[in-house]
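Take one record.
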Amino acid sequence: MTNLALIGATLADAERLADIRVAAMRPSLLALGRFDADRARDRLLDRFRPEDTRIVLWLGDVAGFFTLIRQPDHLYLDHLYLRPEQQGKGLGQMIVSLLKNTARQQDLPIRLMALRGSPSNGFYRRNGFSLIGESAFDFHYEWRPEGEE
């Protein structure tokens, strides 16, 4: 993991991170017939929380970002996006492992939503997340630290 670094985001990073979100979500949204670049950007920009967002650097370059929000009874993974050229290399797995360690230290589950039809559903299931609900466009997942590794 020595090639991986996480740095805090600032308000000045919002536009760049919105571009990463659009690029990462584009294939899934196109498959659902719901791709709208402006809407995808605005959904991030309207709720951007730099204090909870970490930029992922891989070999010194920006590879993606995630937003982890502490709630009273869980950690909410609001965003985890990697540039398309960085996907499939194990980087997401490394990030999820780090997030699981954080959850273990705080003795809290991690919750998240994944777009229906997105490959991210398989990714989260392979990483031990359980389906706990669903909505019109999303599946809701949870990972609990008890009994793990």
